[in-house]
Automatic annotation (TrEMBL):
Domain ArsA/GET3 Anion-transporting ATPase-like: 3-307
MF annotations from Gene Ontology: ATP binding; ATP hydrolysis activity
Protein name: Arsenite efflux ATP-binding protein ArsA
Family, per entry: Belongs to the arsA ATPase family.
Keyword S-adenosyl-L-methionine appears in the UniProt entry: no
Taxonomy, superkingdom: Bacteria
Key words of the record: ATP-binding, Nucleotide-binding
One Pfam family matching this protein: ArsA_ATPase
Signal peptide positions on this chain: none
SUPFAM superfamilies: P-loop containing nucleoside triphosphate hydrolases
């Protein structure tokens, strides 16, 4: 059992049901578990058949739920940046700073950066508020961008710090005979802010690449496109040092499904052989296609025992 477990994959494969049932299996064992959705099209509340929003809510003993609202988090994120910037600039450019922040809020990547801040906040709560966190992530491409942010932005922030330090060294030379200026730049708030940001990304990368702390499971259906997408994603995460613990093959048609589904079942058998070959020796869990959508605790419990096998 890891502190952080991520479920990802192509949209519509059943990530949410798998994340929810796995979280339920942990809670049943007495593990204080938070299940979190980072998917903009939240369906965690539908899976549990209970309202879940961007405030943590209890779902059952030892289990809590949270749906991260990207828009809410982005507004909080941009406001925190604005507040810091307004403390650093003169009153004459306050309106311009606010305008630039508004533009930044609309820019690509703003919501991902905000979600990642929430990610880190939640990760730091493990051991205090919860024992483990189970993440129901967005479809593959969005999730891969999110999980590789620490490596990409960490290097970019290092570059900004280096540039700022060079500028500060020049200012210190100019302030040699200007005591008020020397006092203002003694503890540069911009370097402090950048350094704190760098340290947060470093902490997130430490969590994500620690194989004892974090693991990622891909959920796929026995079909061609999910197999290809999963193979590419496994390769990318491995190159970034993020452990892939195995794959969950969902919606496997059982042998007694009847003649109407026989052709589809035979097609699935070929894809199942490919999955077993391509993703070996990683653990592979196969979940049967159910006769109804999973909604509510009773239905989640039908597959939670199988999902609990991920820890074995």
């Amino acid at each position: 059992m890891k502190q952080f477990t991520f479920f990802g994959g192509k949209g519509g494969t059943g990530k949410t049901s798998c994340a929810a049932s796995y979280a339920l299996s942990l809670a049943a064992r007495g593990v204080r578990t938070l299940v979190v959705s980072t998917d903009p099209a939240h369906s965690l509340a539908d899976a549990f058949d209970k309202p879940i929003g961007f405030q943590t809510v209890p779902l059952c003993p030892n289990l809590w739920g949270l749906e991260i609202d990207a828009e809410v988090e982005a507004k909080k994120y941009m406001k925190s940046i604005q507040d810091k910037m307004l403390d650093l600039v003169s009153a004459t450019i306050v309106d311009e700073i606010k305008r630039q922040i508004e533009i930044a809020y609309m820019s690509p990547g703003a919501e991902e950066a905000a979600i990642f801040d929430k990610f880190i906040e939640l990760m730091e709560s493990v051991g205090r508020d919860y024992d483990v966190i189970v993440f129901d992530t967005a479809p593959t491409g969005h999730t891969l961008r999110l999980l590789t942010l620490p490596e990409i932005l960490g290097a970019w922030i290092e570059h900004l710090i280096e540039k700022r330090q060079k500028a500060m060294n020049l200012m210190k030379m100019a302030a040699r005979y200007d005591k008020p200026l020397a006092e203002r730049i003694a503890n540069d708030p911009i370097i402090q802010t950048l350094t704190a940001r760098r340290d947060k990304f470093a902490l997130a990368r430490k969590y994500l690449t620690d194989r004892e702390a974090s693991v990622f499971y891909f959920v796929l259906n026995p079909e061609k496109l999910p197999i290809l997408e999963t193979a590419r994603a496994v390769d990318l995460l491995s190159r970034h040092g993020i452990a892939v613990g195995g794959v969950v093959v969902n919606k496997v048609i059982p042998p007694d499904a009847g003649p109407f589904l026989e052709k589809k079942r035979l097609s699935q058998e070929g894809y199942l052989r490919e999955i077993r070959s391509r993703f070996s020796p990683m653990p592979i869990i196969e979940l049967p296609m159910l006769d109804d959508d999973i909604q509510g605790m009773d239905q989640l419990q039908t597959i939670s025992a199988l999902m609990g096998g991920l820890d074995s």
